[in-house]
Amino acid sequence: MRIGAHVSVAGGLANAVGNASDVGCESLQVFVSNARGWAPPPVDPAGDQRFRAGVAEAGLGPLFVHAPYLVNFASASPVTRERSREVVAATLAKAASIGAAGVVVHAGQALASGRAAGLATTRETLLPLADALAGPDDPDLVLELTAGTRGALAARFEEMAELLAACDHHPRLKVCMDTCHAQAAGYDLSDPTGVTKALDELFATLGDRVVLVHANDSRDPVGAGRDRHCPIGTGTIGDHGFAAILAHPALATLPVITETTGDPTQMATDLARLNRLRPPPGVQQGREPVPYPAQTRRSSTTTSPPSGTQ
Question: pLDDT tens across 235-274, in order?
Fold first, then answer.
């Protein structure tokens, strides 16, 4: 398990290395463009190589990039879908250049069009992006489970499984589970019994597609459907919940990244708390991830969703 945080790139991407090291990160996540805009990340091959070298020298990793929040492949608006495609394609290229393991994208919302149409447009947009990730060093496209707000395409674990099926179970599509989102979507992570039930279900449903955990406490009660992060141990998940989450054997080899704050002091406090709550070295017994159900991929030129999603 490698615990880290989403760190600032203010003043330049290179600053993320020092920001991560200063607060005690092992792994890290960054934005490479405006988190709330459509502008693509800057092209800077020399700077990217310096950043990669800095990450390696600092012993950090894995590295993930979070795509802008505006991305929504399930939108009823063709303009939004095309802008989403363009910025994610550019973000994937930047992530490959800086050596990132994956690009995290929220699974999206189908507010106006409905779920079936949202699955269809997501498939239409995602498959070409995933097909372009042909190299062994290319980043994965990591779909993040959301908080269950209105129109959410994949907040529940079985909904993410349906989304992956709609995208032909493409091997470059992975999954991120956010603890605040899961709490909001109805999975009770506040006590060991609820944590075991939820995480057993997560890995039974999605198996080794889960490659990243976002560790965020929640301001709201279980099932609230609201995505409101708060510092570790101060919300409705609490210390007992996070201790059980970190002790789950399926997390033993996964990166765990917190997104609770942009304040370095609070970030360091959150990381120290997670490290205090994690099992001592040698205590947590990892287990082989459950393989995600093997499915034969259909041709990416087929644009209709699989039977059952219409």
Answer: 999 999 999 999 999 999 999 999 998 899 999 999 999 9
For 251, which DSSP code?
G
Query: Measured between alpha carbons, how far is 72 from 280 in angstroms, rounded to an integer?
Result: 40
Confidence of residue 186 (pLDDT cuts 50, 70, 90): very high
Gap between the terminal Cα atoms of the chain: 39
pLDDT at 112: 83
Distance CA 262, CA 161 (A): 32
Strands of 61-109 (E only): list them. Answer: 63-66, 102-106
Give the chain's domain count: 1
Q: What is the rounded CA–CA span in Å between residue 171 and residue 239? A: 35
Instruction: Tell me which residue range forms the domain holding 226.
Output: 2-277
> Which pair of structure tokens corresponds to residue 272?
């120290």
Mean pLDDT of all residues in 95-110: 96
Does some domain include residue 308? no
Higher per-residue pLDDT: 54 or 305: 54
Question: For residue 304, is it within any domain?
Answer: no
Residue 150 located in a structural domain: yes
Phi, psi for 210 (deg, rounded to 5): -75, 115
The model's pLDDT over 11-46, given as tens digits with 9 standing for 90+, comes to 999 999 999 999 999 999 999 999 999 999 999 999
Question: Which residues pair with residue 2 across a beta bridge?
Answer: 255
Residue 291 falls within a domain, yes or no? Answer: no
Which CATH number characterizes residue 203's domain? 3.20.20.150
> Which 3-state string (H, E, C) describes 212-249?
EEECCEECCCCCCCCCCEECCCCCCCHHHHHHHHHHCH
What is the three-class DSSP state of 28? strand
